[in-house]
Amino acid sequence: MKPNPITTAPADAAARKAIQPLVCYPLETLPRPDLAAYQALRDDLELIETVVVPPRSAATWTVPAGHFCRIVCSEGPQVGDLNLFNANDLKERLYTGKTRALNGTHVGLGDQLFSNFPYLRPIATITHDTLDWYGFDEFGGAVHDVIGTRCDPYTHNLLSQGGQYHHCCHSNLTRAFARKTGMAPHEAETYVHDVLNVFMCTGFMRDTGQYFMKASPVRPGDYLEFFAEIDLLGCISACPGGDCSAQHSSDTAKCYPMLVEIFKAKGLPEGWAPPPTSGYDGTHGE
Predict the structure, then answer these.
(1) With bands split at pLDDT 50, 70 and 90, how would you rate the model's confidence at 1?
(2) Residue span of the structural domain in which 96 resides
């Protein structure tokens, strides 16, 4: 909703605005991960694979259940758009909308990433975040959002009145996913979904409610780490906006490669079991 209303405010407008908000999803009954059990494994991890994500491009990798994955800033401040899939059933994938509803607009240490309906289960647990010091800044900005959809050539075409750009994150993810699966690009892009914006600093303007981005605070050596709750196929685009300080969908922004590192632990977290899919019976009242 934009400012400058055309409707006269009612006499009780102030009273209506003063009603206290309620959190939509009280989390007292939501199963939470035993973070200490995950972190007990982190001091003895074996690096088994490293994937380089080229600037303005994307790459894929797999993370077996029970392994750790780090997305690393390697050379300079760079934002990445992340998709996650069940490696054994590509119809199950990251559901940023429900992840946002259960965790908040930005995710960090201890938060879990949930999959889509009808599965709705945690598929990854964030076990370390070197940017957790950032919190929320004076503008309401924070890192690692599950708000933005990903830069894409369709919106670019709309806003540029006909421009064609092929290195938006949507296109990058589509190409990488197509290469991995053998699908044609037009089929592959139907699997590309709303992203976790790794390292991106975002929020909402307080006066207009518009989604904003600002220069990422990420620096070489920073990383976001998660534990794979199920076998995962990851796909990440090194955004053509670089650190997203000025623009995205750009061939002029300074961009850097990113690294993805896969680690094997010496064991599994104490008491851990793979999460089951949703227990809802799926009948929808019929």
Answers:
(1) low
(2) 47-265
